[in-house]
């Protein structure tokens, strides 16, 4: 069974839109008095961990979308073999097959 990349792309784009909708406006667009700015700074601090997570996920989504556009989605970055659809289903952002991933993880240890 082949991967339905169009379905994956739609899913990723929806996820991306959702992430972007949740993101807070950048501080440089802020207009207001000091109290507003202080509240904004606090809110920014609180959401910083979330922002980090969001950026990471956005980057993963962008990468996956770029791979779909390039026609390399579901192809292992390391050995060039197709990654089994079950793995792509479980890990939509995977760029390596199980073999290469485990080899890489062993090397890191
Ligand atoms: Zn591989």
Describe this structure in words.
The structure is a single chain. This protein has 109 residues and is an all-alpha fold. The protein has a single domain, classed as Up-down Bundle (Four Helix Bundle (Hemerythrin (Met), subunit A)). The chain is built from 5 helices and no strands. The chain has helices spanning 5-22, 34-46, 48-70, 85-90, 98-108. α1 (5-22) runs antiparallel to α3 (48-70). The protein starts with a helix and ends with a helix. The mean pLDDT is 86. The structure holds zinc ion. The site of zinc ion has 8 residues, from α5.
Give the helices and strands, then pairings.
Elements: H1 5-22, H2 34-46, H3 48-70, H4 85-90, H5 98-108
The biggest beta sheet is recorded as: none
Q: Look at the helices and sheets and give the structural class.
A: mainly alpha
The CATH H-level homologous superfamily = DksA, coiled-coil domain
Question: Count of DSSP helices?
Answer: 5
Low-confidence runs of at least 5 consecutive residues: none
In short:
The protein is mostly helical.
List descriptors.
binds zinc ion; mainly alpha; single chain; 0% strand; 109 residues; Four Helix Bundle (Hemerythrin (Met), subunit A); elongated
């Amino acid at each position: 069974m082949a991967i339905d990349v169009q379905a994956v792309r739609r899913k990723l784009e929806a996820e991306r839109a959702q992430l972007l909708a949740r993101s807070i406006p950048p501080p440089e667009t802020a207009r207001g008095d000091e109290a507003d700015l202080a509240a904004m700074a606090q809110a920014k601090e609180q959401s910083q961990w979330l922002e980090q997570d969001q950026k990471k996920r956005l980057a993963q989504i962008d990468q996956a979308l770029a791979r779909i556009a390039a026609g390399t989605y579901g192809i292992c970055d390391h050995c060039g073999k197709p990654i089994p659809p079950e793995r792509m289903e479980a890990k939509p952002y995977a760029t390596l097959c199980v073999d290469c991933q485990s080899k890489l993880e062993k090397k890191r240890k």
